Amino acid sequence: MKVQSQPQVLGVLLANTSICRVAHTERCLKKLMGKPVLNHIIEHASPQVSNLILNANGDPTRFHDIDCPIVPDAINDHPGVLSGILTAMEWAHEHMPECEWIASFATSSPLIPETMVKELLAAVKANDADMAYVSCNGRNHPEFGLWPVELAEDLRYALVEDDITRIEKWCALYKPHVCPYTAKPIDPFSNTNLIDGIIGIEAYPQLH
After folding, report:
1. Of 16, 31, 110, 205, which one has the greatest count of Cβ atoms within 10 A?
2. Residue 126, domain member (yes or no)
3. What are the residues whose beta carbons fall under 8 Å from the beta carbon of 15, sequence distance 6 or more?
4. pLDDT at 33 (0 to 100)
5. How many CB atoms lie within 10 A of CB 18?
6. What is the pLDDT of residues 33-78, one digit of tens each?
7. CA separation for the pair 50, 79 (Å, rounded)
8. Is residue 56 part of a domain?
9. Could you please report the per-residue DSSP string of 13-66?
10. Which residues contact 57 (CB under 8 A, 6 or more apart)?
11. pLDDT of the chain along its 208 residues, tens only?
């Protein structure tokens, strides 16, 4: 999937984190308004980035209708947001050598702001930060963030050698900026509400 963005940003859809699974079924494959939540997320994310990949382990055929590369974790037995970000960084080194940034997106939130990447890029520049992620109503959502590709080796070392698995602990090693959003009428970064395998849409008036 090739879309437009300046500077070059690789978007990664994080399908391997625990928040994306309920009862061993990915939330992102549940239906919302007649199509999987993942499709809604792709529609919001893809215009913001230069390329988009899906970080997912297991049988890739379950994503047969998704038009982007399916990339498993770069490190075994290290599931989570940091592993997904590293996977995207190393994929970018191989496939997008001019790529400067990774934009990460959780795959359980169908209301991603369509200006998120642009705003994070601006926040990094304005605050002379190394990286940025979002918060809403006082709650941090580091799974939605912007990460420099040049830190790939450092991140691999942090995961493998230092056993750092919490993303905010890793961010504390650098100068991150937390970009605040407001919830009007709801937190656009919140997880979907699953009821008997069907995601209710009453909380999402934008999708009616």
Report:
1. 110
2. yes
3. 26, 28, 38, 54, 55, 56, 107
4. 79
5. 9
6. 788 889 999 999 999 999 999 999 988 999 988 889 999 999 988 7
7. 25
8. yes
9. EE-SSGGGEETTEEGGGSEETTEEHHHHHHHHHGGGSSEEEEE--S-GGGGTT-
10. 16, 72, 73, 79
11. 444 447 999 999 999 864 444 434 567 888 777 888 899 999 999 999 999 999 999 889 999 888 899 999 999 887 789 999 999 999 999 999 999 999 999 998 888 999 999 999 999 999 999 999 999 988 999 999 999 999 999 999 999 999 999 999 999 999 999 999 988 777 888 776 533 334 444 445 554 4
Would you give the DSSP letter of residue 123? H
Which residue in 128, 105, 122, 104 sits closest to 176, CA to CA? 128
How many independent structural domains does the chain possess? Answer: 1
Alpha helices in the chain (DSSP H): 37-45, 81-95, 116-126, 152-160, 167-171
Q: Which domain holds residue 96?
A: 9-207
- DSSP label at residue 80: S
Strand partners, 14: 55, 106
**Cis ω for the linkage preceding 7 (within 30 of 0):** yes
Identify whether the C-beta of residue 123 lies closer than 8 Å to the C-beta of residue 180: no
56's tokens: 């997912």
The CATH number covering residue 45 comes to: 3.90.550.10
